[in-house]
Design goal:
The complex is a heterodimer of chains A (195) and B (580). Chain A folds into two domains: 3-83, Alpha-Beta Plaits; 85-151, Alpha-Beta Plaits. In chain A, 30% of the residues lie in helices and 34% in strands. Chain A has helices at 17-26, 56-68, 95-100, 102-110, 131-142, 165-172, and strands at 3-12, 34-39, 45-54, 72-79, 83-94, 114-118, 122-129, 148-151, 155-158. In chain A, the strands form two sheets. In chain A, strands 5, 6, 7, 8 and 9 form a five-stranded antiparallel β-sheet that branches. In chain A, a hairpin with a 3-residue loop joins β6 (114-118) and β7 (122-129). The termini of chain B are far apart. Classes of the chains: A alpha+beta (195), B alpha/beta (580). The structure holds thiamine diphosphate. Thiamine diphosphate binds next to α18, α20 and α22 of chain B. Thiamine diphosphate (TPP) is lined by residues 405-409, 432-435, 458-461, 484, 486, 488-492 of chain B.
Chain lengths: 195, 580
């Protein structure tokens, strides 16, 4: 069964990594629902957050292939219940309508949106949330002459993760083979992609 | 210049040196002895530095960069060392692409160094600028562009480490011309032993080994299938001890061939589309299938949903990504088989599975009657490829390195060649690259000068990198070139005959007079078409003191059998076309 998986990929901060990761998907004709790159809690280590809709088998194989990339430290793969995730959206609407329609303001409060810029002719609102919230506000604002809309990619925090600190320390030690490596993917789903 | 680098090592002080010299110093420090390459504008500074080290680094000037990389592959496959390639930017670099793809899929350790335009010209469509990093990303284990000489020592050290460690593969280092020319403070070469984001091999888990041992000890019909992992791990002895202790019948993939002698009593032959009847058929009868250092390629498994469904599966591999990729395993044994095999062997009961082994014998007899006998010992009609190989076996005793191209001759050779020594079978397995054999044989000869090296190819593949005869002329590797000429692109013709109603669409290929062509390159040769001359001509080829080309005219429309047809299960293997 296909479902959403969020991949969290820690990499060396190096030119070309985005291509190295992206071709893993394009080669298999897997489309990315969302892709975000950002710094991580450790300097010079980058964090990619990728969302795909795929079956467990496909994702499991994909994750192992991505982990094989030399500059990739670690890939975590989680279902939505295992993560805290958010995305941000910006909405541009005509200011005139905002002024007239009190309903809009109520709406914005309801969705926790706030005004980022108020110009004479347009106003930009910002909202943060999951698909549903962001999309509902989109539909509502559409009725009031929405001019422009953009949504960011997903970012996610893994509930059970201890971050990458310890992993990096482990991997920095000169003898990597001394570190225990889980391969009990047969029994433990949550650490299914641990290596 | 030479002395500067030497003294530098003694004093370990920094010296002012060029990027190019740092490249050469890195190669010497890695104990590289042979480079296969071709110069050009963007790599000229490196070639200039090489000029002073001609006595230490044997540079083989090929005739095409594809020849360089296949030669480096042959060198690496036969010696276990890392092959080194030089090429210039643009067309020089793109000519490496096929070889990189081949080395990637066949896990061959290579370090390819390409020149690149000046860093300030990157992205300007400069003369001979190609984005070789992005082109080669999916076909290298790692690649990296160096734009500053200071990065050179570390980049090359990483390249050698990554190419050779874990599951080997090709690495490409692209060095801009300014970095090659740049003077920098060089503190000497430090080999790389660790890359923090890279784990060469997973740890061995004793629990899984114990579980595997229990399953094998309980098995009534255990069956081992092994691939190149045994060779790459230098685990031939460990592997042999493993199968011998538990009396396990073992079949090889084309890439695993020669890890045990082909006439080993427990060896039951080759797997795959044109492999032996018994091992293919009995894959679907065993109760425990133990895969060692192989990756369940589709040419081996045939249709997946009809593959070993009745059996428990133990998969031993160094690459975690191979586990469960194609075949769901019962027990995964991650790790280097050099380490895992002895641990497993230790836990196994001594056994002989006589009855089960007998089933392989019975299948073998059937295959002999229907296929092998007439292929190896025909008494009338044209020459068969099989009889050529059979006589070659008698003459070499099975001690030669056999390098094959791609096609019918490849399948026939790998089916029938006798090989006593490890690393004797060099062929393009995963990619099936025509034009591989001639350059790979040249490289193999440089990698194992003491061994007899025989390149076997079809008339099609022989013409695909034929320019490398020039390399043989100039550098004199004593390679034997055996062309099995059926006047067709035989393997494609076979499929046209069997599956396209004999519509021979562009498979009738014409050839030059190969012997004359060889003569043009000052290589001796001979053509043979009669059965009574075959043995003597093969002997002449082998005994000749230098390179020799022998062209054998074989039957035009012969077919390779047995065959697991595309879309069929391994147990549906057929022995003749009447069964289609
Ligand atoms: C570079 C390349 N192009 C095309 C093919 C497809 N192909 C596979 S086998 C074959 C025929 C090879 O003919 P030949 O070299 O004469 O050998 P034979 O099969 O007759 O022994 C071809 C064209 C290939 N494997 N590699």
């Amino acid at each position: 069964m296909k479902q959403e998986y969020t991949l969290t990929i820690y990499t060396e901060n190096q030119v070309g990594l985005i291509n190295k990761i992206a071709i893993m998907f394009s080669r298999r004709k897997i489309s990315l629902e969302s892709l975000n790159t950002s710094p991580s809690e450790i300097e010079k280590i980058y964090r990619f957050t990728i969302v795909v809709k795929e079956t467990e088998t496909v994702v499991k194989n994909l994750v192992r292939q991505i982990e094989k990339i030399v500059d990739v430290f670690k890939v975590y793969c989680n279902t939505n219940d295992e993560i805290i995730w958010q995305q941000m959206a910006l909405y541009k609407v005509p200011t005139a309508i905002i002024m007239k329609e009190v309903k809009v303001e109520r709406l914005l409060r309801e969705y926790g949106a706030k005004a980022v810029v108020i110009q004479e002719d347009y106003t930009v609102f910002e909202a943060t949330g999951q698909d549903e919230e962001v999309n509902n506000l989109l539909q509502e604002l559409d009725k009031f002459g929405l001019i422009e809309f953009v949504r960011s990619s997903r970012i996610a925090i893994i509930k059970s993760s201890e971050g990458i600190h310890k992993k990096v320390l482990d991997m920095e030690k000169n003898d990597p083979t001394k570190q225990p490596i889980n391969n009990e993917f047969l029994n433990h789903k949550s650490v299914i992609f641990e290596m | 210049m030479k002395t500067t680098v030497r003294s530098l090592k003694e004093k370990t002080k920094t010296i002012n040196t060029t990027g190019s010299l740092a490249v050469i110093d890195a190669l010497l420090s890695e104990k590289a002895d042979t480079i296969f390459g071709y110069p050009g504008g963007a790599i000229m500074p490196i070639y200039d530095a090489l000029y002073d080290f001609k006595d230490k680094l044997n540079h083989i000037l090929v005739r095409h960069e594809q020849g360089a990389i296949h030669a480096a592959q042959g060198y690496a496959r036969v010696s276990g060392k890392t092959g080194v390639v030089f090429a210039t930017s643009g067309p020089g670099a793109t000519n490496l692409v096929t070889g990189l793809a081949d080395a990637m899929i066949d896990s061959t350790p290579l370090v390819c160094i390409t020149g690149q335009v000046f860093a300030h010209l990157l992205g300007t469509d400069a003369f001979q600028e190609t984005d070789i990093i992005n082109i080669t990303t999916p076909i290298t284990k790692w690649n990296y562009q160096v734009t500053d000489a200071k990065e050179i020592p570390e980049a090359i050290a990483k390249a050698f480490f990554i190419a050779k460690s874990g599951r080997p593969g090709p690495v490409l280092i692209d060095i801009t011309k300014n970095a090659q020319l740049q003077l920098f403070d060089y503190i000497g070469y430090r080999p790389c032993i660790h890359v923090r984001s890279y784990r060469a091999k997973p740890n061995v888990r004793i629990a899984y080994i114990e579980k595997a041992a229990v399953i094998i000890n309980q098995a009534k019909k255990p069956f081992v299938i092994f691939g190149q992992g045994v060779l790459l791990g230098n685990a031939e002895k460990e592997f042999q001890a493993f199968i011998e202790k538990a009396g396990l019948p073992a079949a090889w993939t084309i890439m695993g061939m020669s890890a045990i002698p082909t006439d080993h009593p427990l060896g039951v032959g080759m797997l795959g589309m044109h492999g032996n009847y018994g091992p293919n058929y009995l894959t679907n009868e065993c109760d425990v299938l133990i895969a060692v250092g192989m990756r369940f390629d589709d040419r081996v498994t045939g249709r997946l949903d009809k593959y070993a469904k009745q059996s428990q599966i133990i998969h031993m591999d160094i690459d975690p990504a191979e586990i469960d990729k194609n075949i769901q395993t019962t027990v995964p044994v991650w790790g280097d088989c050099k380490e895992t095999l002895p641990l497993l062997t230790h836990l196994l009961d001594k056994k002989i599975h006589r009855e089960w082994f007998n089933e392989f014998e019975i299948k073998r007899e059937k295959e002999t009657t229907v296929v092998i006998q007439k292929e190896l010992h025909p008494t009338e009609g044209g020459l068969t490829m099989g009889e050529v190989i059979n006589i070659l076996n008698e003459l070499t005793g099975g001690d030669a390195v056999i390098v094959t191209d791609v096609g019918q001759h490849q399948m026939v050779t790998c089916r029938y060649a006798k090989q006593n020594k490890t690393r004797s079978n060099i062929t393009s397995g995963g990619l099936g690259t025509m034009g591989y054999a001639l350059p790979a044989a040249i490289g193999a000869k440089f990698g194992a000068p003491e061994r007899q090296v025989i390149a076997i190819m079809g008339d099609g593949g022989a013409q695909m990198n034929i320019q490398e005869l020039g390399t043989i002329m100039q550098f004199q590797p004593n390679v034997k070139i055996l062309i099995l000429n059926n006047s067709f692109l035989g393997m494609v013709r076979q499929w046209q005959e069997l599956f396209h109603e004999k519509r021979y669409s562009f498979t009738d290929i014409q050839s030059p007079n190969f012997v004359q062509v060889a003569k043009g390159y000052k290589i001796d040769g001979r053509q043979v078409s009669k059965r009574e001359d075959l043995r003597e001509s093969l002997k002449q080829m082998l005994d000749h003191p230098s390179a020799f080309l022998l062209e054998v005219a074989v039957i035009h429309e012969d077919n390779v059998f047995p065959m697991v047809m595309q879309g069929k299960g391994v147990a549906e293997i057929i022995l003749s076309k009447e069964e289609i």
